[in-house]
Amino acid sequence: MEGWLGQASGLVPGNYLSQGTQAAASRRKLFKSLLSNRKLPQEPWAEETVLLFIRELSELDSNNFVQNAGVGEREGRVLSRLVRDRHFGLSHGIGRSGDISAVQPKAAGSSLLCKVCNFLVKDALRVAGLLDVGYVTTVPVATGMALTLVLQALRRRNPKGKYVVWPRIDQKTCLKCVYAANAEALVVESDTEGDQLVTDVDAVESLVSGERAEEILCVLTTTSCFAPRAADAVVEISKLCQRKGVAHVVNNAYGVQSAELCASLTSAFRKGRVDAVVQSTDKNFLVPVGGAVVCAPKGRDGIPTEVDRTYPGRASMSPLLDVAITLLSLGSQGWADLLTQREELFGYLKAQVSSFASQRGERVLHTPGNPISVAMTLDGLRDGPCGGSDEKTRFLGSMLFQRCISGARVFAPGKSQRICGHDFANYGSHHPAYPHAYLNAAAAIGMTRQDVDVFLQKLAACWEKMGGTKDREKGEGAGAPSA
Ligand SMILES: *Cc1c(COP(=O)(O)O)cnc(C)c1O
């Protein structure tokens, strides 16, 4: 019988006690093998097991010691019980002044949880197909801010570097992160290849070889994006960056969930130069917004380590805890299953949208380079006989939104927008002259078959209404957010 419970014999029969302690010991065995294997458990952990694990670690933090008299200015004191419970009694956060990965002496438990989160994430990346990853750090800021931290780290290494060569992607954060790092973007417009928009590798090459070559900070490519934009040609760009000695950062915001994107990143690691890859925790790991994962290929850990080392101060551990809890609750099997389901649903979504479109004289844009997002033309709505217009196209977007379809996005050509001093013609389509209006939908992790079915039902209902009496819909469609 283990430790203190030995004293209980005589109070409760020994055989009952040993049965009980065996059950508790089997939980502890899981903890032990987690810490020795340093990867995802094969099987999902039960909620109680996860909770016990966190509680045990929480007891190692000084704010939870029974006999602790804090006389410092940071003692992890929490007034509200709701707040304390929300954090499982963990209140020291992570890091010490000036290094987010440094172990905090007052918080052995929190410090350990931070390491656990990062090795779980590293293994989750491996299961998803992103191989040869070296250093991984999960930071408590979202993707855009994490990209800014990465660009700042690059600037410290290359003080002359000022320009970021940036294949256009119409997502404001992707550009704002460059200016937040006090750098400037050199915008590279996409090439068209059939329906899809692809990286103009030659244009990137001429920028990194041109007169401003010395002042190029890096090339910033993006993998996950709305169709008809395809993922950037990360393999070719990484080879180019290797050849030219230019840094290469990848915005892989929600790319972890795609085996195809993971495979091309692995290939970019092996064939060329990648300095850092940044991905969102909420978009890939089904947790609330709050974190991002910064990683680099094995043997080239410089930038993510620099991000950790220069983080000014301590940070919240909550985003890391959320990820750790989620990954332990999934285990490698549960995580792999989720990824497989997503791949299947992407096929299903594409097929369903395709058949919907073809019945209405539209079609799904051919975008084989985008494994997550689907785009269906809305050309008939624009040029239709019953007074179709871009207004009408946008109207469809707001109708869907009002019917609780979130995430469907409608693009109608013609709007330009100024962002960070750049004028983008046809903003929203990633291209100054994309010839179609279209509707986007994405098969993202956690989506269900039912989500797809309900989306198509409501889309069909909206379509009918649009084609029929226009007047009855008056007043509807206001108040929806634009893309
Ligand atoms: C979501 C997203 C971002 C912004 O991410 P935040 O997590 O909100 O900072 C940037 N780039 C791409 C491609 C995205 O999808």
From TrEMBL:
Q: Which residues hold tRNA?
A: 270, 403
Per the UniProt entry, the Enzyme Commission number(s) are 2.9.1.2
Feature type site, description May act as a substrate filter by repelling compounds with a negatively charged alpha-carboxylate:
73
Lineage: superkingdom: Eukaryota
InterPro entries recorded for this chain? PyrdxlP-dep_Trfase, PyrdxlP-dep_Trfase_major, Sec-tRNA_Se_transferase, SepSecS/SepCysS
User: Which pathway does this chain act in?
Assistant: Aminoacyl-tRNA biosynthesis; selenocysteinyl-tRNA(Sec) biosynthesis; selenocysteinyl-tRNA(Sec) from L-seryl-tRNA(Sec) (archaeal/eukaryal route): step 2/2
**Top enzyme category:** transferase
Query: According to the UniProt entry, which residues carry N6-(pyridoxal phosphate)lysine?
Result: 283
Q: Which UniProt keywords apply?
A: Cytoplasm, Protein biosynthesis, Pyridoxal phosphate, RNA-binding, Selenium, Transferase, tRNA-binding
Entry's Gene Ontology BP terms: conversion of seryl-tRNAsec to selenocys-tRNAsec; selenocysteine incorporation
Q: What is its main location?
A: cytoplasm
* One GO cellular component term: cytoplasm
Could you tell me what reaction this enzyme catalyses? O-phospho-L-seryl-tRNA(Sec) + selenophosphate + H2O = L-selenocysteinyl-tRNA(Sec) + 2 phosphate
Q: Which cofactor does it need?
A: pyridoxal 5'-phosphate
- Name any one GO molecular function: tRNA binding
Q: Where can this protein be found?
A: Cytoplasm
NCBIfam families under this entry? selenium_SpcS
Task: Tell me its family.
Answer: Belongs to the SepSecS family.
Q: What biological function has been recorded for the protein in this entry?
A: Converts O-phosphoseryl-tRNA(Sec) to selenocysteinyl-tRNA(Sec) required for selenoprotein biosynthesis.
**PANTHER family given in the database record:** O-PHOSPHOSERYL-TRNA(SEC) SELENIUM TRANSFERASE (PTHR12944:SF2), SOLUBLE LIVER ANTIGEN/LIVER PANCREAS ANTIGEN (PTHR12944)
* Name of the protein described by the UniProt record: O-phosphoseryl-tRNA(Sec) selenium transferase
Biological classification of the source: Eukaryota, Viridiplantae, Chlorophyta, Chloropicophyceae, Chloropicales
